[in-house]
Amino acid sequence: MRFHVVVGAGPTGTSTALLLAESGDRVRLVSRRGGGPAHPLIELVAADATDAARLTELTEGATTLFNCAMPAYDRWPTDWPPLAGALLTAAERTGAGYVMLGNVYGYGPIAGSMTPDLPMAPTTRKGRVRATMWLDALAAHDAGRVRVTEVRASDYLGAGSASLYSLAVAPRVVAGEAAAYPGDHDAPTSWTYTGDVARVLVAASRDERAWGRAWHVPSTSEASARELTVRLADVAGAPAPQLARMSAEEVAAAGRANSIMAEISEMLYLFEQPLILDASLTEQTFGIGPTPLDDALIETVKGMSPSAQWRPGPPARGDIRSRPDALAAE
């Protein structure tokens, strides 16, 4: 029986742990609070993953170490480096294959489709954090100290998913309320279903071709924000949606009152142009295709809980009010 360690008990970490356990593998799911699903093959552990010695102890004997962790969105420059360093150290010390969950921030602005072999060229603070994490891990891989791969996703859909859309728009649309969202609402966008993230993470961990490079998660849809919102309302049986465009000035104003929203401003380029991930190599190599959009949206709606929804009030202009740790994973 293979043994794996998954760090981070958010939607992607939980999905990954369950997928591994359902295949018969033993899993240790590590998070700050020690939460996670009840499964006979999943051991839930509360630990500080920035403690390299403790994380190494927990990873001893593991085939794979999965990094599905996510510090609070407004603390990436301070909180990611020690966490990423501890994860890489634990993988090097134990010999576990290191599978990282990443995103597209490290690429910087790209005209056209994003391919996983693009160089790191970040133009933002958060992009530089993600690029450094990958380049440090890749250097360790190239030096023969560890086997590493990274799976990159776009904007999330799925139960409990933490993306600006799933937090700021989806609950209001389902409740029949007006919502606001930045950027070009007609620009095609790759939407990532959290279950597909888990499938690619697990597939990459089991395939020798995966090591030493990055992979993109196949998109459940490339709908624009407007098209996605119409489809979400239809799936949820909600009234025709009202989606207003949130200007850069409004995002900045919201950021002055909310530290999470303050971090959106530097990432607005992602909302203002097409954002398309080319995942053809993933599909060809691992035989993994995307989950149908309606399935992802149905799960998104079913996964909504009072703590994840917006409180009643005027139309949203970007104030994340119900989750102070929004855009952060466990």
TrEMBL record:
SUPFAM superfamilies: NAD(P)-binding Rossmann-fold domains (SSF51735)
Segments for region (Disordered): 304-330
InterPro entries on file: Epimerase_deHydtase, NAD(P)-bd_dom_sf
NAD-dependent epimerase/dehydratase domain span: 6-207
Protein name (record): NAD-dependent epimerase/dehydratase family protein
UniProt source species: Dactylosporangium darangshiense
